[in-house]
Amino acid sequence: MKLFRAYRKISCLGLLLVGAAVTLCGLAIISMIDGADPGATAPVASVGGIPPRLMEAYVRAAAAMPQLDPECKGMSWQLLAGIGKVESGHAEGHQIDADGLVTPPIVGPILDGRGVGGNITPVYDTDQGRWDGNSQFDAAVGVVQFLPSTFASYADKVRPEGGASPQDVDDETLAAALYLCQGKDLTDPQTLHNAILRYNYSSAYVDEVLRWMKQYIQLGDPTTTVPIGDASEQAQQVIAAAASQFGVPYSWGGGDATGKTTGICCSEGGQDGRTVTGFDCSGLMVYAFAKVGIKLPRVAADQAGVGQRIPASAGMSALRPGDMVFFGNSRGIYHVGLYIGGGQMINAPKPGDVVKQASVWNYDYAGGARVLG
User: Fold this and answer.
1) Helices 148-158 + 169-181 axis angle, to 10
2) Could you give the CA distance from residue 68 to residue 356 in angstroms, rounded to a whole number?
3) Is 0.70 topped by the overall pTM?
4) How far apart, in Å, are the Cα atoms of 355 and each of 23, 208, 281, 282?
């Protein structure tokens, strides 16, 4: 059994809003570290475009360090995510199943010394091709790109019963956390710099990881627990209504209180909404809030004037699930989304896109509006 377990199904039409997490047609996470309180839960919401299942792995690996390496300080999911972003783009182009397995496997360039990826020194095989498919030379493997020999040195620690795999995001992110920690105080900037440098001996690499780490910190913490009472029943209904439209196309001027509609002509980019049945950003808000009997103005700029205004100067931390969140520039408000917690929103982004969950944009942020009690 993995150190992290277990999963409970919820119905396809169900919505679980626990803390900052929204789960639809999938798995409600009830995860724990072996030996921890069996009633403890660890709800997370994905931020910054990180695949949700990988987000869970980053969060759990960081949370495991106080137990597995008590001397380590400052391990964070943002650090692991920074490395995962630089190393594999968070498994871009690959699927991660509910058990954490990556398909197809992530295998870096063969390190035969021919200069691919900057490698000029051959790294001869250490795993008999088990993980990288090459029995002559090694290649980095997995979402955070460990050499097979390095991963093997942590395999028994991340899965004592055997069977650890670098293509399992739980196993490999936990190994990465252990490798970076080693009893160090990562809250010290120089120690953190050196730990990342040990991972990949390149100052440019360290700078890039730190840049992504800081960006994820700014986007918000998906592990912050919000008592269920703080997410009102109305907020849950509005979020469920918006989420029920995932995958519906963007239509300029589309959407009303009854659902998706054809739109109008024409967006700045030239989309003729009359040819597309769907929602634009404000139309999605009209539909979602109509589910709790609230009639909103049709356009985002007018919606920003409804209810209690939350100024941009208050920061994103002032938002709570069920608030509308706005974006604008010198010409005024141009976009609106529905905040769901954890730095995430549901929105209809732009022509050619679909209704989806995304990180709250960290540019042109114009505050929010609270119309729910």
Assistant:
1) 100
2) 37
3) no
4) 16, 31, 9, 12
Residue 122 preceded by cis peptide, ω within 30: no
Strand 332-341 versus strand 344-347 pairing type: antiparallel
| Cα dihedral: 158, 164, 169, 172 (round 10) | 60
How confident is the prediction for the chain on average, in pLDDT? 83
- Tokens 């919401």 belong to 45
How far apart are alpha carbons 6 and 40 in whole angstroms? Answer: 11
Distance (Å, whole) CA 55 – CA 285:
27
DSSP state, residue 267: -
DSSP bridge partners of 139: 110
Enter the tokens of residue 189. 């900037």
47: its two tokens: 């931020």
Predicted confidence (pLDDT) per residue in 264-277, tens digit: 999 888 899 999 99
Q: Indicate the pLDDT class of residue 223, thresholds 50, 70 and 90.
A: low
